[in-house]
Design goal:
The protein has 616 residues and is α+β, with helices and mostly antiparallel strands. The protein is built from 17 helices and 30 strands. The longest helix is centred in the middle third of the chain and has 19 residues.
Length: 616
């Protein structure tokens, strides 16, 4: 596909998908604020190449941040093409082969698949054109970003972390953020469910130092493959080869024996001492739109930095959605629909994970329903399928011609029977789910709309003109009452609220859903409301059915609201100072029409630091 990252950037430029920013832009906060504004333009805006960063290297951001750019990165017309390619491959290998002729017909396909396997080459690669060792190793030479005001430091946000299983020699390439601790050390953010953590524990059991090499840049297929939830033991460079339709050329590192792609822009080599105590890492403004808080993680010690001449440093910005990661997740959704459908749930027609769900929180699945209970069976199966185990809210539909049709989905959800069609469960959650009662474990909720009769009339809404406030309710928003049968309630941040009593005493009728939010939350944007509600609720604690109405308590839970006992993180926003700086410099960036800071919508919710410290 692409010779290197520079070739991909040239393609983006030719396609009109790139802005070049020639003015000096500071990697601390300023690049993030500009990128956040651009990525929230309709359609994801454009990629941004910051040519003057105060270092020897330019920075590219938002390079995957649209449907067109993610398709260009992976060499396809659209992400739907990925599903078709994988289904064709699965069908060819798994269909019966009764005759010799049928078996021989597989040979060309096997030969093609063999060409995807990574190839090891001798000598040095482009990624080793410049080499720094010993005292010359200085992470400060790189334009590593500090993104948000309460981040614990600068973070490498698009690293391809290469590790080797000491038991069987298999490779893992994962994307784990890296906080810079010093000129030659960083954190290594391995979550408990990740392969990198499993490798770390294997070296720890053997009392061995763990070699690690971190690649940055190169063909964008490498970066995508590192984000993909591959089965443990399957080589991510094989997936990259499948996407590229040619093998990844690997070269040996300078200070360890790990093989890395020869065309990467940077390689940071080193090790993790598994007998060394873990170090406090974080906080970090994460893809959930909230800070992931300080925790203990291993330290990565850098032994070498190598790079190609004219290297470009790629970075991604994560925060309140939508950001670039929403489009990366879209490719993953399309790739992994095929194996789920073919190996686990053949009744699935389509799957959609809206960006408001920040990858794990929300999924919509359409099935061919042929028997009662199939919707609940689908939910239970999905919650046991690989990384779908982290899903929190699942909507099951049947007969949806377009699963992204919001109007069609709304008509189903308005007619759902709250007592009949809801499946509450508990299980593993993403460790970044801050609303879960325990780290990585909490409630799940499935909405089974497959029994809904679309010819059934919707109960009429009645809300009196004069509302009597009480029971902790401050105000109500009726903007989606008629369209979604949903009432938005702003309530005090206290345990002394009773919204069902408030609804009953005011004689409010026909409301299917009540979403309870904080007084400071801006309810004017339905997308933000969906993100906020899905992020801030645990179905086992914060969602109750009462007399045919579903009450969803999406308030901030700091200080023990609803019995919540963990720390509550702040929403990710820029500081007022950074917003003002970018406002003043906007004309210097040459980015076209002025864009207001997206942070202005949420900055009123801020308290304390990375943690929300407003204790009722």
């Amino acid at each position: 596909m692409y010779k290197n990252l520079a070739a991909f950037i040239d393609r983006l430029d030719r396609e009109g998908e790139l802005y070049r920013v020639k003015a000096y832009v500071n990697p601390i906060y300023e690049i993030t604020e500009i990128t956040d504004r651009e990525s929230k333009r309709k359609g994801g805006g454009k990629a941004l190449l910051f040519e003057n960063t105060g270092t020897d290297f330019p920075v590219i951001t938002n390079m995957f941040g649209s449907y067109k750019r993610i398709a260009l990165a992976l060499g396809i017309e659209s992400t739907d093409e990925l599903t078709k390619r994988i289904e064709k491959l699965f069908a060819a290998f798994t269909s019966p082969k009764p005759t010799l002729k049928d078996k021989l017909a597989l040979l060309p396909l096997l030969g093609e698949a063999a060409r995807w396997l990574p190839k090891e080459t001798r000598g040095k690669g482009e990624c080793q054109e410049t080499i720094y060792l010993g005292d010359d190793v200085k992470l400060s030479m790189l334009p590593i970003l500090k993104c948000w005001p309460f981040d614990g430091g600068r973070f490498v946000t698009l690293p391809l972390v290469n590790t080797i299983d000491p038991d069987n020699g298999t490779r893992n390439v994962g994307m784990y953020r890296m906080q810079v601790f010093s000129e030659n050390s960083t954190g290594m953010h391995w979550h408990m469910h990740k392969t990198g953590e499993r490798h770390y524990k294997a070296y720890q059991r053997k009392k061995l130092r763990m070699p690690v090499s971190v690649c940055i840049g190169g063909d964008p297929a490498y970066t995508y493959a590192a984000t993909a939830p591959m089965p443990d033991g399957m080589d991510e460079y094989l997936l990259a080869g499948f996407l590229r339709q040619k093998p990844v050329q690997l070269v040996r590192c300078i200070t360890n024996n790990i093989m890395v792609p020869s065309d990467c822009d940077f390689v940071i080599e080193g090790y993790v001492d598994t007998e060394e105590p873990k170090t406090l890492e974080g906080a970090f403004g994460d893809h959930t739109g909230f800070y992931s808080l300080i925790d203990l993680y291993p330290t990565f010690h850098v032994t070498a930095i190598t790079h190609r001449r004219n290297a470009i440093y790629p970075a991604t910005i994560v925060g309140v959605p939508p950001e670039e990661d929403a489009y990366i997740a879209k490719a993953t959704e399309r790739i992994f629909l095929a194996p789920i459908r073919m190996a686990i749930l053949p009744e699935i027609n389509d799957m959609y994970m809206p960006s408001e769900g920040v990858a794990h929180n929300i999924a919509i699945v359409d099935i061919d329903k042929s028997y009662e209970g199939q919707g609940f069976k689908t939910a239970n199966s999905m919650w046991g399928a690989g990384q779908m185990m982290f899903n929190k809210f699942l909507v099951i539909t049947s007969g949806m011609n377009n699963i992204k049709d919001t109007n069609a989905l709304r008509e189903r959800l308005r007619r759902i029977d709250v007592d009949r069609d809801m499946l509450f469960s508990r299980g593993p959650l993403d460790v970044l789910d801050h609303a879960a009662p325990a780290k990585g474990f909490g409630g799940k909720l499935a909405f089974d709309t497959t029994a809904v009769d679309l010819n059934q009339p919707v109960n009429p809404i009645f809300i009196p003109e004069k509302i009597i406030y009480g029971h902790g309710v401050i105000s109500i928003d009726m903007s989606i009452a008629e369209s979604w049968n949903c009432l938005i309630v702003k309530a005090k941040r206290t345990n002394e609220i009773n919204v069902p009593e408030f609804i009953q005493e005011n004689g409010i009728k026909g409301i299917k859903y009540v979403i309870i939010v904080d007084e400071e939350f801006d309810t004017s944007d339905l997308s933000s409301l969906l993100w906020f509600a899905a992020s801030n609720t645990d179905p086992s604690r914060d969602i109750k059915a009462d007399n045919g109405t579903l009450y969803i308590d999406a308030r901030i839970k700091a200080g023990g609201i609803n019995g919540f006992a963990r720390e509550w993180p702040n929403i990710v926003t820029s500081s007022a100072e950074t917003i003002e700086l970018v406002d003043k410099k906007w004309s210097q960036y040459d980015l076209g029409e002025f864009i207001l800071s997206p942070s202005l919508k949420y900055i009123r919710l801020h308290k304390g630091d990375a943690r929300y410290e407003d204790i009722p």
